[in-house]
Amino acid sequence: MPRHRSCYFGLLLFVWVPLLLSAPQKRTLTPEDLVDIRDVSDAQISPDGKLVVFVIMEPADPRKPEKPRKQEIWMVPVDGSESARPFATASESDNTPRWSPDGRSLAFLSPRDGGQQQVWLMRMDGGDARQITNSKTGVNSYKWSRDGQMIAFVAPDGLTDEAQQKKDRGDDGAEIDADHQFARLWIVGMGGGSPTLLTRQDLDVFDFDWSPDGADLVAVFTTRDHVLDGRLGIFHRANGDLVRELSNNAETILPGLLHWSPDGRFIAFMENSPRKIPAWVSVVPAAGGTVRPLTRDFPGTIHRCFWAPDSAHLLASALMGTRANLVSVNAVTGEVAVTADYLAMSPDFSVTIDTRTSAYVSETPESPSDVWVISRGGSARRLTESNPQFGSIQLGSVKEVSWANRKDGVRLTGVLVMPPDYQEGKTFPMVVEAHVGSQGWWAGWQGSWWQWAQLLSSRGYVVFLPNARGVTGQNWKLRDTIVDWGGAALDDILDGVDELVARRIADPERLGIGGWSNGGFMTAWAITHTSRFKAAVAYEPPLDLALSWEKAGLTGSGEFWESTMDGTPNGTNGFYQAHSPLHFVGSCHTPLLILHGQTENAVSLLDSYAFYRELRSKGVEAALVTYPREGHALQERAHQLDLLRRMQAWFDDHLQRK
């Protein structure tokens, strides 16, 4: 080689090698990364479309483990001219921001007075926050009247003076049902004065909306004896009279789906399926008449909606497969048109007065939730970057997968998270993460104390997140099958596993399964009905459904179990037992880690203890961990870290080390 070429080549090495060596290396994801995420929610765009306020839940302070995470309201311009900034600072959590109709003020909920959560108000031109309500029991929800002169809010009953005096003396025995504190609807004027009680009847109000002229309010309510049988009725603001009932089949779980049309003629609301699960959007004349279903045949789930100014369309957020969409629903034909596609685990979105611009919370496979906006005919724009640290962390690749149930041919979708070092044709240990609840499904960012996919993928696992039948994002008939409690959903999962094994992605000898709540149930159901899984992790799993019914009865939700199982455990010919994993524990040979909150009010800790003792008595490896002060969802940072570390170690011990 000529000398000058050799020198040139050496010069290239001199220049480029240091640059290559100095290139930043992405680090491995840790449990601390997940519990310290800043969670974004509740994006609310101003009426004129210039500003968006939203809520950030800040990470917990590791030096104060007993203190809950704090919520703060932030603001960002829609035109991107400035970065997001805090709207107001307070020592307590602020949440649920709502613009006044003229955009000059912002209301929000906060326990700023050191007591119960109240409605507060701040003017956009400056000044201190002003307290609007003073409910002894706090405010559950609220909504502006359309002229901005009043706010209606829901607050539970407080103790009577006599009952409070008895309680102060220690004479505080309570009779179940008879001493129920109803959630009632109140109205307060923005000019000051005491609030007015609207619903004097013994009813629980779940959702409500104002008529366009402010003379009436429509509400979804129930009686104490029928907590799942939502009734839809109109109350006159002047005297609180129930003017008319419009439906006895309104859902009572999802807020944000009850809206009075701008022209005053119609009311949109969500109806229940025969199994009392939120199913489809319907409209009914405000003057009374026939209820007309709109989205009964829609192959997805509507989660939030608003009327367009023409009163002929609804703007809604819809879950479809593994995606979320902003859609337009024709209020006459029910035809649904997609206007924007995004990823999200929540239905948060809001619209301007003219509905031309929407703000919503979305995610990416590489980053948790942030605020986005889209205008009609335009492209979506991201306004915030709340967790930039994930740009320097190595993450697994995410893609959608699809397969069919072999028995009935139902087509299903799910999410697959691959390890960073994934190689085509090489099999990996795989963990199935079963979905939570009837409202849960897999999409978007996959990392939190209860979403384990990205953390496990960073440790060399493929993670399969199947949207088996029974979840949102499907037609209502498939969603209703969640009450099968196992049933065909396990076939859905196993058929998906078979597909991934056949494609040489998953190692059939190194399969695990885990999940929270209903995901915990599916985990236990799977390992008592197949021996294919070599390790399992379940948090808060209902394992004895009869015992769960008893527990639910003490918290007022026993009717849910009776509705989904056609009665009580004593009158259903063994349905509860036939769908309880504890009844099949003798067939289980899979090592199981169970985790449970000690103050849980929905799922009995006795379920987990009985299952654990049965496994140990027959020589199956099992561990049971309980968390003080924790309920159905883990709140304390140290406990969340402990769960993630134990989960990792359990799967590593049984699936990684042969």
How does this model look, in words?
With 658 residues, the chain is an alpha+beta fold. The protein has a domain at 393-538 and 622-656: Alpha/Beta hydrolase fold, catalytic domain (Rossmann fold, 3-Layer(aba) Sandwich). The chain is built from 12 helices and 38 strands. An 8-stranded mixed β-sheet has the order 31-32-34-33-35-36-37-38, sandwiched between helices. Strands 2-3-4-5 form a 4-stranded antiparallel β-sheet, with no helix packed on it. It starts with a helix and ends with a helix. The relative contact order is 0.08.
N-end to C-end Cα span: 53 Å
**Cα gyration radius (Å):** 26 Å
Mean pLDDT: 90
Main pleated-sheet profile: 8 strands, mixed
Index terms:
single chain, 658 residues, alpha+beta, Rossmann fold, 8-stranded mixed β-sheet, 4-stranded antiparallel β-sheet, 38 strands, globular, disordered N terminus
Short description:
Helix content is 19%, strand content 34%. It has 658 residues and is of the alpha+beta class.
Give the SSE layout.
Blueprint lengths: L2 H20 L4 E2 L2 H5 L3 E7 L5 E7 L13 E7 L7 E2 L8 E5 L5 E6 L7 E6 L6 E2 L9 E4 L5 E7 L4 H8 L14 E7 L6 E2 L6 E7 L5 E7 L7 E7 L5 E9 L8 E2 L5 E7 L5 E8 L6 E2 L7 E7 L5 E8 L2 E8 L5 E7 L6 E3 L5 E8 L2 E9 L5 E2 L10 E2 L2 E8 L6 E8 L9 E6 L19 H5 L4 E6 L8 H5 L6 H16 L3 E11 L1 H10 L7 E5 L5 H11 L2 H7 L10 H4 L13 E6 L7 H13 L4 E6 L9 H20 L2
Helix pairs in contact: 8-9
